[in-house]
Amino acid sequence: MSEDILPTRAEQVQAFLGRTPFAQEIGMRCEVMGDEMTAIMPFQQKLIGNFTIQALHGGAIAAFLELTAMAQVYLVTEHLERPPRPINLTIDYLRQGHAKDTYARATITKMGRRMCSVRAEAWQDQRSKPVTSLLAHFKVGGD
């Protein structure tokens, strides 16, 4: 790639996911339109946590939401030298995650020079009925 051609934000997000082993393991991908991103975790049998009721593993959904939040920070932040580092995460399990594709969106609620706050929600059938939500703070600058 020549120095004149810089990767787009969407390409930077995809590169971040490509360098993240867990994102690869769960088959995570993102659809980006401008500064709006929808993350997708396609259903795979290995994501089932309770085989009796065919429910997704809560840890898989939580990690998916954390990666969604980090990808959103990448999407809207210029010149990040390294991935956002989690300071703390709060996960709320609201409904059972079924054996089907899961979607997520994240919103940055506060962006500072050194940290940012992000909210994210995952849903399956209806966005208005999230299965899980996340509130996270990430270190984005300074040491």
TrEMBL record:
Example of a GO MF term: thiolester hydrolase activity
The transmembrane residues are none
Q: Which domain of life is it from?
A: Bacteria
Classification via InterPro entries = HotDog_dom_sf, PAAI_dom, TesB_ACOT8-like_N
What is an example of a Pfam family matching this protein? 4HBT_3
Acyl-CoA thioesterase-like N-terminal HotDog domain segment(s)? 51-138
Q: What is this protein called?
A: Thioesterase family protein
Q: What are the leading ranks of the lineage?
A: Bacteria, Pseudomonadati, Pseudomonadota, Alphaproteobacteria, Hyphomonadales
